Amino acid sequence: MTTSLSIDTAHAADLPQPPDAAKKPHAVKAPHGATRNDDYYWLRDDTRKNPQMLAYLNAENAYADAVMKPLRPRQDQIYQEIVARIKQDDSSVPFRERGYWYYTRFETGKDYPIHARRKDLMTAPEEVLLDVNTMAEGKEYFSVGDYEVSQDNQVMAWAEDDVGRRQYTIRFRNLVTGDVYDDVVKGVSPNLVWADDNRTLFYVENDPETLLTVRVKKHVLGTPASQDELVYEEHDDSFYMGVSRTRDDQYICIGVSSTVSDEMRCAPAANPVDFAVLAPRERDVEYDADHHGGRWVIRTNAPDANGTPAKNFKIVTAPTGSTSRKDWKDWIAARDDVYIDGFELFDTFTAIAERSEGLERVRVLKPDGASEFVKADEPAYSMGLAVNAEPDTEWLRYSYTSMTTPNTTYELNTKTGERKLLKQDPVPGYDASLYVTERLWATARDGTKIPVSLVYKKGFRKDGTAALLQYGYGSYGASMDPGFNNGVVSLLDRGMVYAIAHIRGGEEMGRAWYENGKLFKKQNTFTDFIDVTDFLVKEGYAAKDRVAAHGGSAGGLLMGAISNMAPDRYHVILTEVPFVDVVTTMLDPSIPLTTNEYDEWGNPEKKEYYDYMLSYSPYDNLKAQAYPAMFVGTGLWDSQVQYYEPAKYVAKLRDVDTSGHTVIFRTNMDAGHGGKSGRFRRHKERAEMYAFMLDQLGVK
Length: 700
Prior knowledge:
By secondary structure, the protein is of the alpha+beta class. It has 12 helices and 37 strands.
């Protein structure tokens, strides 16, 4: 591949040598007898204190600093562009709940939000609930995961994390006096529900080692956490759980879910003692339920009387006192061409979130069976239900965005059809009319049509000379819907094309789309992405030697796989917190998330899964060949993808790569899976990554 002058060539003589990690052979054994050697296994240190490991990470950071030094002006410029497109004194659309208007706002120059409310009217005095800027002072990382106000509006509980490992601490404040209670509950997930007595808080406790959600407990205000009562404990480590209140506030529910099964237990919120199972868990039967209007409404893929599953989900109803599957009554049938994503219940209508042809839509269903769709105006967009806190309204709030349209909140009158624009996120200096978005279909090697969303600036010529950044994810059934991306605007303004490949493993095209990109069909995810690249190059959207690819977490697995399978297609790879050591991680049940994900990747303790996973695991398939330039990022405290996966990957890559291309490995020593906290600090990370990419692609 050829490129314009970059740090690979222009400053090669001035660059230090990249770190050379020591090799220490280590046998990784599987229960069925298979053994692999891992020379860099020693980089794993669960305490994060090993001096040799820390020295290596610090050496990589120092090397990254040296490589990026000549690009700092470009990085600073991109950062300033991104920040200039942020309205610094901004506020969310307020929503009303139990007599108060709740909203979140930002102040100029400050990194963190302020959560506030006003009583009855938005003209009433503001009551600040949480000023996260004050709470985060002196901390490298800080996040408020959830906050919940008691039913009488007088006590607030919130969950905070100052490490980034997603182990939260619950604290409490009296909203009448402003006093913070002495009560502290540690080691929890950010999922809180108050009972009707306004003194009892239900929460989910994490396992301290695996970080799995394992126990639901209840805390009574004014008592020590050591006395918190166990409500439910899950013993199957392939399941995770959460707590919630139903739409009508009548029930508190415990939801237990795996990749392929669900179970809900609910109890009256006025007396949450006996949690009754709505429907027992069954493998390959998923459901979620809500209660309103004296009945349960359930979204499920459960099979019909003939054993045919509702693959794209259906909606059924059940009487309040009888919820076993035999009592379920079909309400909205499953369809092959429409995937039911969710629903929201109101007094006079039901809002249904659906997917068709890879695009989201919202349908309003009336009691008489009449329905209508919320209108969309662009070929590629994202639409979903917004915060609709109270069901006794004719108005439906929904969100809308596209690759050219900033996040927008509308309110639709379901009786008259009147539509109100409540807010469009202000983007100073941005003119949507200068950009174009398209929806394309690429043909995969097996004939499957893959949807592609892309955006570029007006004046772009499809002549095969442009630089392209292609993004993908393709796991967990997570759909990567096209939305506005502030940072990408800086790329478009420099003549680049940005594309999202909606590859199998996501759920854009329905449940089968997901199932054809997991377990023994995981390779489809990787080949789909490569085939989209070939399509875009063939159609003239990009030069074949000016293509960059980007994906993080499970999308980092995708990046590692395509780098092994088709290194000549990509000139530079960008990836954050990449899941690249698939087999070793999935063989270790002590690592967070492992046991939850056997139905996503497979259990390598079974030889057939082991062999298939080994065939694509990026770390295991690194070999002597010319790899693209890479920018790899991670967080030392990442709980989702442990830091040592990308550390090992980069160490081995440096050993086998024959290209001479630059590889940067940046570890944030104070952050976890989500990177730095704060609305400005994370943009510095993105600006650094983009500066590296632009240099590699020869984009000015």
